[in-house]
Amino acid sequence: MYKRIYFDISGVCNAHCRYCVSGKDSISGSEHRKQGKFIDIETFSGAITHMLSKKIIAPDCEVILYSWGEPFLHKDLKMIIDILNRNELFYSLSTNASICISFNEEQISRLKNITFSMPGFSQDSYDRIHGFKFDRIKNNISDMVLSLRSSRYTGPINLAYHIYKFNLHEISLAANFAKEVCINFVPSLAYLNGYNMFRHFLTKAMKPNQIEVISTEVFTEHLGKMQRQRPTDYICPQFERLSIDESCNVLMCCGMEKTCGDRGLVGDLFKMDFNDIQERKREMTICDECTSLAIDYIGHNAIGIVDFLRLYGELFSIVDYDSNEKQMGGDIYVYGTGETADALFGSFFNNKLFNVNGVIHGQSVEKNIFFRGHKVENIDVLKNNPSQKVLIASLSSKSIDEIYHMLRREFKITNPIIKFEINI
Length: 424
Ligand code: SF4
Ligand code: SF4
Hints:
Blueprint: E1 2-7, H1 31-34, H2 41-53, E2 57-64, H3 77-86, E3 90-95, E4 111-118, H4 123-128, H5 134-150, E5 157-163, H6 171-180, E6 184-189, H7 195-202, H8 208-217, H9 223-229, E7 242-244, E8 249-251, E9 265-268, H10 274-283, H11 286-292, H12 295-299, H13 305-312, E10 318-321, E11 330-335, H14 339-351, E12 354-360, E13 370-371, E14 374-377, H15 380-384, E15 389-393, H16 397-410, E16 417-420
Parallel strand pairs: 1-2, 1-7, 2-3, 3-4, 4-5, 5-6, 11-12, 11-15, 12-14, 15-16
Antiparallel strand pairs: 7-8, 8-9, 10-16, 13-14
Helix pairs in contact: 2-3, 13-14
């Protein structure tokens, strides 16, 4: 039985994204989008009953109500949620936040998580990708977060920030916004959303001008490396998941856009039980092509901020140095042992400007602990060496300022402090 399934209730999206097959301005054309529709309530209810009675899904299954479309466009979204609640199933949502919907306590009682996708933090970035009014999106997100929390939703709310080449300087603004409205900030590299679109890019079966446009906006330089890194025994996680489109077709996986046609089609959900689905999935030849291009590996190893900093660290620079002496370089201590500090460490080693002397841990350290080969020390080491610089790093300038004031006020640190955040 599946414990987690993708069930697209809407095959329609109102955004203009160039790099998604559902986008109105998709570089892949309109073939996928033209076939999109909404599932009707009776069909959805019948599909849930069928999957439970045939033991296709577990009784506590999580139904992810999106894949290719915008679920908030579905006029009966709340009725769909009622059906899931009545069947004691869990669900997750993701939205581009163009439509503001509030849910009552009952409706969100089985919501596992909700994600707001974001292609940048300015009108310019929204004009390039989603095509919405940026101020309105910000207000919608704030309003929905407030409404969810006042309906006693305590689960995760995520801001999925898609990193493009043109929006790097906006990452810290988005991180600050997430902090202000108290939601998780989850940045990751934007990718080409659609199996065929991605395949055509990797095999250079696209027009050269399309490849050029993609390469100027989307980070693709690491893809060759990832293809080479794919372990030969890698097992695609989609074999453990179920993907259903809004017409109740079972798809090989959530990457199967409509132009994949029969190659991506497992069959009619209502004509299959769990074993039929598993058996048919094992026969699908499209997986051979997919694995040979490492699309399975790349697709399931999203590049989050830490890997991104490691891959593209040379793009970043110091934005603030709080000393009168503008002289850069010399001995530094890195403050923090978190993932961001870890990733940033790499870029500081590479630029050879600084000599990293050690790592400072916010709490007291009693025994010998090492972080990337450097001794983790108590804050007192700085008091004894006031000329040693301290590096503080975060994606959010708000967090940087908080740490800065804490070091100055709480710990009475007088050392020069280098503030490091993303700056292109
Ligand atoms: S990426 Fe998301 S918001 Fe953009 S067109 Fe695709 S489904 Fe819609
Ligand atoms: S191997 Fe590729 S086509 Fe097959 S299920 Fe995984 S991602 Fe989908």
